[in-house]
Amino acid sequence: MGCYLGALDHGTTSTRFIVFDRSGEVVAASQREHKQILPRPGWVEHNPQEIWFCTREVISDALLQKGLRASDLHAVGIANQRETTVLWNRRTGMPVTNAIVWQDLRVAPEVANFSECCGVDRFRAQTGLPLSTYFSALKIRWILQNVKGVRRLAETGEVLFGTMDSFLAWHLTGGPNGGIHITDVTNASRTQLMNLQTLTWDRDLLAAFDIPEPLLARICPSIGILGEIRHKNLQGIPLAGILGDQQAALVGQACFQPGDAKNTYGTGCFLLMNTGERIVQSQHGLLTTVAYQLNGEPAQYALEGSIAITGALVQWLRDNLGIIQTSEEVETLARSVDDNGGVYFVPAFSGLYAPYWNNGARGTIIGLTRYSTKAHLARAVLEATAFQTCEVIEAMQKDSGDVLQALRVDGGMTVNHLLMQFQADILKRTVVSPASPESTALGAAYAAGLGTGFYSNIADVKSNWSARYTWTSKMDAATRNRLFSTWKKAVIRSLDWAGDE
Hints:
The protein is of the alpha+beta class. Strand 17 and strand 18 form a beta hairpin. The longest helix is centred in the C-terminal third of the chain and has 27 residues. The protein is globular and about 65 Å long. The termini are far apart.
């Protein structure tokens, strides 16, 4: 068997294939972006066929870079954008329509309809999730109701549903010629159709959402041999791990103990705290989800706080206001002032996720005076990310009873040292970034390695982790309390701005 691991890392904007060695170092990597399709306000779609084309391209390119063959790889794992929903024909492999992306808001009226009788927490006991536009169930329902002929084919299993891991795994293992229709427990836990305790599709939920069971994939552990890849460039290599991208980052950051937490700073922020074998039902606006499962072992669970807009706010400052020319300039501009000058920015462009789950919230800039400058606004943009993270951590500690010792961080915004220092200050906790910047892809590779015996156990993976940067809190308590309490006042002003009109 080969001495490397492959990771297919499919995200919201691009797909990558990365080859790692045993120590977690990158050997080769290739990346391709795919189009963001925006047919109507609030609608976000992807073309699954374009994504499958990009997948084949990045696999081929990465191997070619170092002259690698399939036999050089020991196993391959998948990390993928979660909740994004695709239905495709079992015989042809063709999607019945574009994939509906996790950011898409078209099912908002259905969220309201389903919430009428018992509120947004109607299915939380079974799924750990509130009713939201975020998850897959209502997206599936929308396709079945709005794409002609699909429901009839779904009822006979001629049309298949999957999050993107299922679609890619099916194609990699043969597609129309015997491809396996699977998903793992982490992705299944984001559909709002899986029972967290039994780790199976819940027939009461299927009935409530009117979704036929033949449509659904077989639920598997996250870590273990799932099938054999039949794609030409990876022929015969085991597919041995599947994780939703945020759970993959948790594994890549070696957060294997209850109380361990990581935050990924990307378009949005996604915080996960490991709760071990405990299913902790949140009382403070968080999601309960599956963290990972090794084959033959109990599932490990997590609390998650999802923040919709963080890095996207920097892009908005660049693209919509033209205050900066590149995203990197935001740190320099924000450093040109000593503080935020009393300016707070709540980036509720399409509502707020955790811990508020308020669809009617809207973006709010508050505290402006004639003293305010674009530098204060830039600083408020960065601080908004840290404040939102702090609110989620606060909720996690209340729900779990675990006290966070340090926050492990990854994602593009972690290169911003001003933000990371402010994060440590406002949290009053140490913030640590890993030596490897590829936490998500590395988590998929680790899953594949653990699933095939490439690594003997979790301790082998933990020994690979090391820190690149560490930020410690330097802010005094009075300043911290003043800033955080004023942020919360700003959030209250943003709530329910978009009403029933």
